[in-house]
Each structure stands twice: as C-alpha cells, then as structure tokens.
Amino acid sequence: MKKILIFLLLFAFAGSAMSQRNSFTPPQYKKIRKAIEKKGSVSYYPALMQRLQANDTTLTVEDYHLLYYGYPLQPGYAPYATHPLADSLMSILRKEEVTGQDYETIIRHGSALLLENPFEIRFLDPLIYAHRMKGNQEVAAGLEFRFGRIIETIFGSGDGLARKTAFHVISVSHEYDMLRALGFGFGGQQQLIDGKYDYLKVSKNDYGIEGMYFDVSVLLRSLANMR
Fold first, then answer.
1. Residue 137, class by beta-carbon neighbours within 10 Å (0-12 exposed, 13-18 middle, 19+ buried)?
2. Is 106 left (phi over 0), alpha (psi -120 to 50) or beta?
3. Which of 8, 66, 88, 180 measures 20 to 30 Å from 151, CA to CA?
C-alpha cells in the first residue's frame, strides 16, 4: 500500500476543470474575508466549514473557493505545522500489506487529522481508500467529492504555466498533488522566485512543459507572522 493515490479521480477533475474554464479566478483575499465574516450569511465561514466537515455534496465551486482560500484567514492556519498522527499514518501506508485493523487505524487517524487540516489531500486520499475497503461507501463518496472539489478549486486559480497564471495553493503538499493531477513527475528541482512563487521542474513530458508555477504568498505570510 505504498501508493493509494486516486489517479483516475485526479485526472477526471483535472480534465473537467481545464476544459470548462477559459479564465481563472485567483483568490482576492480582501473580498473573501468580507464574505466569510458576515454572520448569518450563507458564506459565513463557520457555517461553510460545518457543511464541509459533514461532507455536504451540495457545496458549490464558489463555496469551495471561499472555504479553501478562506482557510488561511482563520486563526488555526499553520501550513508548516506537523502532527504526530501523520507519522503514524504514513508508517502504515509504507507497509507492503495492510490488514483490516490497519484500515481502522487509518480511518481513526485520518479523520482526526482532517479535523485539524480539512484540505490536506495526503490525508484524504488514504482515508477514502480505507473507507472503501471497510465498506463505508457513502462516507468514501462524500470524501471523494471533497477531494475533487479541492483539486478543481486550485485549477480554477490558474494554469501554472507562468507566474501571472500560477496555481494558488495554501499548502506546499498541494503543489505536488497538482503535478500528479496533471500527470507530471517532479523533476527534482524547486525554486522560490520573486519571493512569492514556487517553481517546480517537471519530468520530461510530451507537452514540452519544463515546470509549473505556484503562488505561495499566503504560506510565506503565515511563516513571517510566526517569527
């Protein structure tokens, strides 16, 4: 169980998002803050988050835009934080064979981790798989919806081909998730450009693309605030 990446799901949402969008919607954090702080509104962040945690599949693309890019505006946002449960989860995923008890542990640890970081794909991915293996199909379907919407939201922010159209991400791990969504391998080099863009080289491909750009300004602001 070294790799439980849901490649078909990633490609499906990647193709859908890229084919349906002729323009991009990068986050405008001032407008997002105004929308999610309005108590009693449908866009009030605590209300949206409650629906997300309940795996509400009626959440729209616009809702996810507010949820994903509104997350860095929340007090608990800590993109560089680590959690001991993550190490325990990863140790199980590295096993050659996984038992039924392991799946239960993945579900327990993965659910706890998602409560702290509801957008972390590296936790969503194995959690979906474990629920499928335990027969929890409805729960898995709800988590798959969240998984796909996160990918779709990032695709909506740009195409990653230039700094001006960089993908906007709120987690470093999402950079690598997006490479996988596009079918690219990591080329082994990462570079910070202009103090706000991560440039990741990609492996040789049929499209002649050498690398992808990611706007990581919101992560760097969070890091600066910690100092």
1. exposed
2. alpha
3. 88
Among 166, 161, 153, which Cα is nearest to 197's?
166
Condensed to tens digits (0 to 9), the pLDDT of residues 116-126 reads 999 999 889 89
Residue 212 pairs in a beta bridge with 200
Give CA separation, 179 vs 137, 176, 197, 200, in Å. 28, 5, 15, 9
pTM above 0.85, yes or no: yes
CA dihedral 215, 73, 182, 120 (to 10 degrees): 130
Q: Identify which of 150, 149, 108 has the alpha carbon closest to the alpha carbon of residue 126.
A: 108
135, two tokens: 């027969």
- Residue with the two structure tokens 């997006």: 178
Q: What is the structure's pLDDT at 9?
A: 45
Q: Is 187 left (phi over 0), alpha (psi -120 to 50) or beta?
A: alpha
How far is the CA of 92 from the CAs of 42, 163, 224, in angstroms?
39, 38, 34
CA 53 from centre of chain? 15
